[in-house]
Amino acid sequence: MRALRRHFAVAGSVAVTAVVLAGTGCSKTGSSADKSADKAAAPAAAAKAPDKPAEPAAKPAEPAEKIKLTINNFGVFGYKPLYEEYQQSHPNIEIVESVSEYNSQHSNLINHLASGSGAADIEAVDEGFMAQLKARPEQFVNLLDLGAAELEKNYPPFKWQSSISADGKRQIGLGTDVGGLAMCYRTDLFAKAKLPTDPAEVSALWPTWEKYVETGIKFKAAKTGAAFFDAATNLYNGQVFQLDKAYYEPGTNQVIAGSNPGVKAAWDLTMKAIEQGLSAKLVAWQPDWVTGFTKGSFATITCPAWMNGYIKENAPTTSGKWNIAAVPNAAGNWGGSWLTIPAQGKHPKEAYELAVFLTAPTQQIKVFKSVGNFPSAIPAIHDETVAGFKNPFFNDAPTGKIYGESAINLKPQFQGEKHGPIRKAMEDGITRVEQGRQKSDAAFAQSIKDVARAAR
Amino acid sequence: MVETHRGVALPGRPAPRRLGAVKRSLEWVDSKLAPYLYIAPFFLLFIGFGLFPILFTGYVSLTDRDLLSPGAETFTGLANYRELIADDYFWNAVKNTFLLMAMCAIPQLVFALIVAHVLSGIVRLRTMFRMAVLLPNVTSIVAVTLIFGQIFSRDFGVINWFFGLFGVDPISWQAGDWSSRLAVATMVVWRWTGYNALIYLGAMQAIPKERFEAAAMDGAGMWRQLWHITLPALRPTIAFTALVSLIGQMQLFTEPLLFDASPGSVSGGSARQFQTMMLFMYEESFRLGHMGYGAAVAWVLIQMTFVLAAIGYILTRRAAAGETK
């Protein structure tokens, strides 16, 4: 469902992961889950019960005359029933939703921001475009001015920091969902290669990425006919997600891709895996890659939550052959969205109230139940329905727990404006090596040149 | 226009002095102003949606302007153009555009001619066949590209499967320089051959039948007739279609964009092996936000198209002149 569109979601885009001022990374998360659930749900509860005059949150939001709030999103956000709920408690608000495809959603939004009019009151933004948009925070309402600071404790640090401006003073988005990151693997191929198949044992095979590549070398030696992973870029990105800093010196506009030892280490390990012949040399979202799921071209793939639906939809015959283990270092994220309020809108206050309602943990749980988008709010991640969820297509893998933990564990990482194009330049270099066009050193040198060009 | 003035105004002249002022001014409106009013809608639309954007793009190309900070641009004169001339990736895109132009336009016109010639010989179900050759042209370009992407895929594509029957190793079409361009050119040729064939077919039917009959009596076969009668008669039409497809090729965009389906790619392959000028412009303006630089690419593209159109125009005139001799 969502996954298919979601794939373009990420496909069309560029970036991944989180963003953050490394210095301001906050760490009060886990323990206060229940309390924060109550707090965040407060506006929602107020919304549901407008007749209770004691509720303070609902009152100021209720406009004196009828107004129309527009919301633009993409793919499947699953908000329809929530609008009705909200309109019942806010009789003077009419919500008009417009749903488009991932790429047009973002290119339309950018065009509307560039021309100064035409954007909706609430615009959904995917992680692939967030780094670019938050570099222009003046284009959006600063949600901290409207009281969003109290919502911070609801979110994993990376999610909150991903949509905050470089100076940490402007928050432009409220998180809807996250991708998290896990490792999907084929139990049939693992059994053939005499590797363990139980998720706990498989996770124990690769506490680090080095161990992951070592496991791959063992797998390769067993000659199953399949490659160990689909594309080297996924191995590379999985490592880069987890770095404290990746392509930018935190909080600045200074690009450090070429001098960052973390990036080079990720590159080198990726090159080792290519040399060892572990890659199926596919390019994600190309026809071969899609068919590869069904044909068993590769044994493992880094797998965000929305990828589960994608695999189920594109390779229905592989049901029961998959399972899901933790990703090395057990942290990561790929995909996920925010609701933003463009500054050009006429009803920022009302839009904010609605966005708070839609992204409140209670609502995130409802959305998870109806369309499967994985929640980004910690109270929702810890909710029984989410944390206890098992996916039958993947041998009842405890996906709720795996994805929740990977999102909460992920360290915030600062991403500058050109993070997406920079990442693409690095990926192209890896693909050139995979395709045999260049050797590692030449490819790295050219990628770093392309990075400088993208960031100029 | 000049003709219209004469035609309308002259008959009114014999009795101008007896006309009242109102009538005279009405006549002035009718003869002098009306023609301009008739053509005004086109020119207004052209100025609003054609000329203004072109000129404004010209202005933007002289500035350093960010996509998301409109109005905050700084005037930099010809800096963008100087940078452009020294930019390897720009020249790579120019090279790819012209290579693809040759790889698309020539086969497309040759095939179109053959198809038209065969079609003109078909008597039964002729409408059906004529509609059929136009089908590729009305098919959604996105669908076409996706299907061809599958046909040209490395592991499970039809073409590699076919070559595999003869023991040829799978070709990674998208990874290679020439293989990727060939794949893109195939999509374009497939799409436009039928369209050009119909234009040729129309022109062929204007050729007097007697010429073919006389040739047939002299023993000329179908292909000899094509070479000695049809081709010379079609010269102006061929020049026209060549010009139109060359200009169309300058703007080649969707096929190379969608052929590279990897996440957010606008670079036309991992080594820009099939990035065209349009794709390069799109990358600079909308992916990297360099509106000024992108506008400079657009302006160079416009100028190249003008030059190409001028050359084509002269050639077409020559061809037409050759025809009337």
Description of the structure:
Chain A has 456 residues and is α/β, with parallel strands linked by helices. In chain A, 46% of the residues lie in helices and 11% in strands. Chain A is built from 21 helices and 9 strands. In chain A, the strands form 2 sheets. Chain A has a 5-stranded mixed sheet with strand order 2-1-3-9-4. In chain A, strand 1, helix 4 and strand 2 form a beta-alpha-beta unit. In chain A, helix 1 packs across helix 14, helix 11 packs antiparallel against helix 12 and helix 11 packs antiparallel against helix 20. The longest helix of chain A is centred in the first third of the chain and has 16 residues. Chain A starts with a helix and ends with a helix. The N terminus of chain A is likely disordered. Chain B is mainly alpha-helical. Chain B contains 13 helices and 2 strands. In chain B, strands 1-2 form a two-stranded antiparallel sheet. In chain B, helix 4 crosses helix 12 and helix 12 runs antiparallel to helix 13. Chain B is flat and about 70 Å long. The N terminus of chain B is likely disordered. Chains A and B meet through helix 5, helix 6, helix 13 and helix 20 of A and loops of B.
Oligomer state equals heterodimer
Average pLDDT of chain B:
87
Beta fraction of chain A: 5-15%
Low-confidence stretches of chain B: 1-12
Report the total helices of chain B.
Answer: 13
How many β-strands of chain A, per DSSP? 9
Query: Structural class from helices and strands of chain B?
Result: mainly alpha
- N to C succession of SSEs of chain A: HHHEHEHEHHEEHHHEHHHEHEEHHHHHHH
- Please write the string of helix (H) and strand (E) elements of chain B: HHEEHHHHHHHHHHH
**Helices and strands of chain A: which structural class?**
alpha/beta
